């Protein structure tokens, strides 16, 4: 089996999609004032950072088109919003719904930019 040139990009899409699904689950749990056995937010963050690392390695390797660069920048802004969410919940214990929504929209927009920027 021979892998195509875009397999790292497809891998990044799959990993980041899993992170967004985990983030949607985490947001649902937080917004309905429920608790989980596992800290789903940290799992979501680790998967997201792994996906962004794959995107960064692909871009540093020179295999990605220039149209995917805005996705990386927006993903990094999304990470900063996620870090802000982490510190807000550790300090205040309650997350503002607005910041959760902004974080989710940024992540979904980043994924769409990456999806449409990859050559298939």
Defining key terms:
76% helix; mainly alpha; elongated; 120 residues; single chain
Question: Which helices and strands, and how do they pair?
Answer:
Blueprint (H helix, E strand, L loop, with lengths): L6 H25 L8 H21 L8 H24 L4 H21 L3
Summarize the structure.
The protein is mainly alpha-helical.
Structure description:
With 120 residues, this protein is mainly α. The chain has one domain. The chain has helices at residues 7-31, 40-60, 69-92, 97-117. The two termini are 18 Å apart.
Helix content: over 70%
If you average the pLDDT, what whole number results?
84
Strand tally is 0
Give the biggest sheet.
Answer: none
Order of helices and strands: HHHH
